[in-house]
Amino acid sequence: MDLILSVVGCGYLGATHAACMSSLGFRVIGVDTDPDKVAMLSRGELPFYEPGLDTLLAQEMKTGRLSFTTDFSAVADADVHFVCVGTPQIKDGLAADLTYVKAAVAAIAPYLKEGALVVGKSTVPVGTAQSLRSELAQSAPQADLAWNPEFLREGFAVEDTLTPNRLVVGVANDRAEEILKEVYEPIIALGTPWIRADLPTAELVKVAANSFLATKISFINAMAEVCEAAGGDVTVLAKAIGYDPRIGNRFLQAGIGFGGGCLPKDIRAFMARAEELGAKQALEFLREIDAINLRARQRVIDVVRSELSEDLTQYKIAILGATFKPDSDDVRDSPALDISAQLQAAGATVVVHDPKGIEPARKRFPSLQYSESVTDCVKAADLILHLTEWREYRELDPSVLGPLVKNKIVIDGRNALDRDKWRNAGWKFHALGRTD
Ligand code: UDX
Questions:
Q1: Nearest-10 Cα torsion for 347, 348, 351, 353
Q2: Are 176 and 291 contained in the same domain?
Q3: Distance from the CA of 383 to the CA of which of 55, 148, 229, 282 falls in 20 to 30 A?
Q4: Is there a domain that residue 220 lies in?
Q5: Per-residue pLDDT tens for 98-126?
């Protein structure tokens, strides 16, 4: 391949994109301001857990096509520059912090060669791409800018990058589209739908998709609340409505709700941006989606109190799961950790287990107790709270755990455990949205 690519920002998205683009045969230069991250990646080691990406990274480093540096001048050779930096929520509001995106574009601007294309992948408020493009027209008129949102899910990052269910490019002209078609040619050849949009639409596609997903999850969690009030079973309800292809059965898993680095902050930033644009009313429903989501965390705590006591000070609670979802070590805005911290603040002794997330969790919540093994975690517990649906928790044998705990009570915050299996082993079993 002739094109040389740069990837600016080598976090979760950037490291994945860099390794995947290298695997398509491109020379890829990854740049990041964090020297520790660059050193690790340069050794072929991943600074976070993502199934399959560790092997891909190590393999691509051996080819010599992939390199990482803190030196921004290294991007001078590249034709296409993917901006993959974070856009976290601002400290004092709902909006997205664009500092890193602006800094990334400014940092590469002096090194852009004639005809270079800067391609934003970060999730940004609508209008950002257009304003960055106008700025670039001043600082680097020889270059152009496009937007190419990513939809990758943690745990499936490689698969979602190399075999995405669609490619969306926001471009201002045919040339930018042609360059992106050249980059993604092997993926397009698989029959992947290609959607050309203008810049604002491409930005909106990403936040609209995440808002829809968040809405689906909060919808089923709202149904869980109603099921609890009416004596129904949300898992049966979800299965039954999911057979309608217009509804579909994915993302209807009721439980403690969504977390992570994307869904919560994206819906909030979307609301903030809509308000700036004078379209506040259109997204008012997202406020409710957020509220339902946060309420799910409270509901599980209510079940704990009703099982143990209003005063939790005498009780030990074993928490299974710290990450915001399984197959990830990401604990950003993790409902599991939020619940753990709230229970601890209420006076309970809380011990947390997670197959991959203990270290990141400890950094965020150093005062919680952590345990490397499920057996230690549940020892003498008054109650087990299942909060992240790792496979290893589904495979636990409740009859083996029974003799270890003080009280055989389990609360399934993810509707993922086999209720009959636990009950048959003598456990009191509760799940959110299931009254039986
Ligand atoms: C999400 C989007 O799916 C992805 O397309 C986008 O690029 C980034 O944000 P991710 O954050 O990896 O991906 O997680 P996702 O799989 O969407 O799950 C988000 C949260 O929702 C998790 O906390 C998960 O536990 C929760 N969830 C998901 C539910 O509570 N119920 C469900 O049915 C599905």
A1: -100
A2: no
A3: 229
A4: no
A5: 999 999 999 999 999 999 999 999 999 99
For residue 391, pLDDT over 80 is answered with yes
Instruction: Answer yes or no: are the C-beta atoms of 25 and 101 closer than 8 Å.
Output: no
Q: Which residues contact 382 (CB under 8 A, 6 or more apart)?
A: 308, 315, 316, 317, 405, 406, 407, 409
**Same structural domain for residues 82 and 36?**
yes
**C-beta of residue 10 within 8 angstroms of C-beta of residue 151:** no
Cα–Cα distances (Å) from 91 to 12, 94, 95, 96, in that order, read: 21, 8, 9, 9
Most ligand 1 atoms within 8 A of CB, residue of 210, 263, 324 to mutate: 263
Nearest CA owner, ligand 1 atom 10: 153
- Answer whether residue 215 shows pLDDT above 80: yes
Count structural domains, the chain: 2
pLDDT at 1: 54
Q: Whose Cα sits closest to atom 15 in ligand 1?
A: 153
Does pLDDT of 175 surpass 70?
yes
173 and 259, same domain (yes or no): no
Task: Specify the ligand 1 atom closest to the Cα of 256.
Answer: 30
Residues 137 and 242 grouped into a single domain: no
Residues 43-80 pLDDT 10s:
999 999 999 999 999 999 999 999 999 999 999 999 99
How far apart are the CA of 24 and the centre of ligand 1, in A?
Answer: 27
Which of the listed residues 154, 258, 331, 415 should we mutate to test ligand 1's pocket, taking the one with most ligand atoms within 8 A of CB? 258
Same-domain pairing of 256 and 182: no
27: domain range?
A: 4-197
> What is the model's pLDDT at position 243?
98
In-domain check, residue 140: yes
Provide the annotated active-site residues. 262
Query: What is the distance in A from the centroid of ligand 1 to the CA of 155?
Result: 10
Does residue 39 sit within a domain? yes
pTM over 0.90: yes
What is the CA(29)–ligand 1 centre distance, in A? 29
User: Which atom of ligand 1 has the smallest separation from the CA of 389?
Assistant: 25
pLDDT per residue as tens digits for the range 125-148 = 999 999 999 999 999 999 999 999
CATH of the domain at 302: 3.40.50.720
| In the block, residue with structure tokens 């002739």 | 2
Question: Percent of the chain at pLDDT above 70?
Answer: 100
Using CB distances shorter than 6 Å, the residues near ligand 1 are 150-154, 210, 213, 217, 251-253, 255, 257-260, 262-263, 324-325
Instruction: Among 171, 197, 223, identify where a domain stops.
Output: 197
- CA–CA dist 21, 170 (Å, integer): 19
User: Taking 70 as the threshold, does the pLDDT of residue 222 lie above it?
Assistant: yes
Q: Please name every residue paired with 141 in a beta bridge, in sequence order, or none if there are none.
A: none
Pocket test for ligand 1, best of 217, 234, 294 (most atoms within 8 A of CB): 217
Res. 436 pLDDT band, cuts 50 70 90: confident
